[in-house]
Write the structure tokens for this entry.
Amino acid sequence: MTHGSDGIAVSPEAVMSGLAELNYLADEGLATAIFLAIRLGKPLLLEGAPGVGKTEAAKAVAQAMGCDLVRLQCYEGIDAAHALYEWNYQRQLLAIRQAGDADINIYGDRFLIARPLLQVLQAPEQRLLLVDEIDRSDHEFEALLLEFLSDFQISIPERGTIRATARPLVVLTSNRTRELAEALRRRCVYHWIGYPDAQREAAIIMARAGDVARETALAVASAVQTIRSRPLAKPPGIAEAIEWANAATILEKGGSPWPEAFRRAIGVLIKDEEDVHFIEPDMPRIIEVAMS
């Protein structure tokens, strides 16, 4: 690939080092997948539970590669107009009225609204495309995306075909709420991101939290591991663990002693009413064990 900054594409170790400088701690498996996706010119498909850092990985790769991040957030009912392009009909009508009897090209650039896929085609070496939560879209949209990823081109009836001059970097994320088509998987380098172990999560908290002591980070990581093992509707992600460490630290500095600060800050970790009621009776014991 010929992106503006290929520094991290030297080796998986260079990927790990480059992302670590941006406070994203990738393990060997993820770093290898990123490295191969860049070098092979293939999309990278990241799957995992919500909150494990899939979107953050794409943001970090874009920053490390010197690319602008173009994010396509998928949702149920998303269609081609939201992903590819649209015509600015109001501007076209105004231009027609103003032109009167004169000839006017209403399909010029000033009337074209580029959506994420077209934006990336227009500057493939300067932009990374993040297709976030592809599993939330329907099969028809997935088929449209598959065609785009095969040829990296868009056909606009009024303008012709627009092709990328280079293969852009593409990262797709999925929470696996539904199975993706095999044809899409075959075109991608695949990696599953799981929750980190306690030591790695503590390191992530230390890297990304504001002013959190090492002992606090270790206690939070240990407690969160236990909490995730419970049958919760919405287990806390890494971002929530970082927020919990920050919030508890703020409360402790404001006068709430440990472990009371952890208990009072639970609202930034558990964000489902039933989960809060379920886990609350066990929190004193969970925190006590984590701090021991």
Q: What stands out?
A: The first strand starts at residue 44 and ends at 47. The chain is about 45% helix and 15% strand. The CA atoms of residues 73 and 132 lie 5 Å apart.
